Amino acid sequence: MMTEDSSVPALGPRARRFLELTPVAVWLAIAAAFFVRLGGASPDDFYITYRYARNLAEGLGFVFNPGERVFGSTDPGLALLLGALHAVTGAAVPWIAAAIFSLSLLGVATLLFLEGRERGHGLEAILGGSLLLVSSYFWLNQGAAGPLVLFLLLLAAALSERSEAVAGLLAGAAAWVRPDAMLGVALLALLLTRGKRLPWRYILAAGGVVAAGVGLAWLYFGSPLPNTLGAKTDMAAATPGSWVGLRFWSRAMAPLNRHFGAEWPLVLLAGAAGCAAIVRMNVGRGQRLLAFYGVAIALAYPLLGVPFFSWYILPCLAAAIYGLAFFAGAAGGALAKRSSRPALRPFLVAGIFLVIAFSSLRASWAFARDFAPAPYLQSYRRGAEWIKANSKPGDAIAYVEIGVLGYYSERPILDLMGLVTPWVRPFVVQRDILGAFKADPTEFVLFHTRGRMAPIVRSRWFKRRYQEVMQFEDPGGKGILHIYRRFSGAEAAASAAAP
Predict the structure, then answer these.
(1) What distances in angstroms separate CA 98 from CA 89, 147, 314, one per listed residue?
(2) CA dist., res. 216 & res. 213, Å (int)
């Protein structure tokens, strides 16, 4: 008979709590390392939200272009939060966004770990949280609002037993951060419903916060929904073979292969199987909410008819990652039971998980080791800073990717894709980018060898009115950013008179 070794002191409650929270400490270190390594670098679109935030903090209004009240940010709640923190701390907005992103990922993993430990699924929660915190796909989208939305929804689920009203306030705040969180708000209401009893306190609190956001947006912008949704559907309509409908997920294949390895279909299939198992298992409300919300987002975006962007599917991948962990838990448990050696279960579960996730871990290591901001975004920043130093505050710029350019130039932007310039959208549908530009010519025009501005800069009309004044080569030499400036009055008259 085995007896406890009296020479080994029993762990006290504090020591046990410390050991139990070791995964959280490790995750905090991982999040901090990625935060420092990536240095606040984000995709171009996120800088649209960053400019809204900075303009708000600096007293220029909740706008992209001062004086133009256009609802051009898909993450309005995040922009408000960033603006408030920038006003209080003075820290650079991209760095604040990176900190919120990192802490939100940590918060998601921690909430699911605490819930999983209480429900007997601590190992699955540790495995899922660890892959979530190191996933290069997530860190590629550093600054995205998705993790903050997930954190608020999961925190609402965690606190719903204590106070449905508080849960409703948090869920409503998630919808402010990003409107697609309304799917999560509705799903949590369903999870809180018990028989015929509706969670009225939750519904009223969440509904009140959402209604307040819709009302304020309508009063300030004249529209309850971001202009970006319509602008992106216009882009899709104007682009043959655009990444909408079923093509939405076909477009996702390339980044999934890059960040999850060639085994990404197996990761998603195992994740889907795990999510299906979660419905039948003794898991907490938060884990169920994540699974349902991930599936809902996966269906919603193709139905909306918008093109694929990598940050749209972050909730789907978070659900798949935890689904994979629960799939490994179920498979490892079945194998241990079959072998009549239950002590093997943790090793079998971890082994199955690591085999399926090995390529993902390898890709994440390579990403962290070799990371550098996208070369064309570095050129955009250099071009924006050059324009700022060589122009007056009212000199406007025309281009098709406006985030980094607008944030660092601090100049008015004519957005030729219509995200923050709504009157351009009919030209986008007609694929008449030159017509849009001719309707409101700007002082500066940019052209990058990635394309899309060619109809403008190659036109005879443009060549008679603009000249190239600067160019920046991308690091690595794969592209060049050209900056054009309008001729002065005398130069323009001479050019127009030339044969």
Answers:
(1) 15, 11, 16
(2) 5
pLDDT tens string 16-64: 666 678 999 999 999 999 999 998 899 999 999 999 999 999 999 999 9
Residue 102 to residue 260: CA distance in whole angstroms:
20
- Which range has the worst mean pLDDT, 149-153, 239-243, 395-399, 410-414? 239-243
* DSSP 8-class letter at 308: P
Say if residue 2's pLDDT is above 70.
no
Radius of gyration of the chain from its Cα atoms, rounded to whole angstroms: 25
Q: Token pair 């292969």 is at which residue?
A: 257
Q: How far apart are CA 162 and CA 383, in angstroms?
A: 53
Return d(Cα 295, Cα 183) in angstroms, integer. 10
- 135's CB contacts (< 8 A; 6+ apart) are 259, 317, 321, 360, 364
Short-list 423, 446, 443, 444, CA closest to 435: 423
Give the pLDDT of residue 78. Answer: 98
**Planar angle of CA 33, 75, 151, nearest 5 degrees:** 50
CA distances from 30 to 14, 358, 442 (A): 24, 18, 45
For 314-334, the pLDDT digits (tens) are 999 999 999 999 999 999 999
What's the token pair of residue 83?
A: 């603006």
Give residue 288's Cα distance to chain centre: 21
Q: Which residue reads 């951060």 in tokens?
A: 177
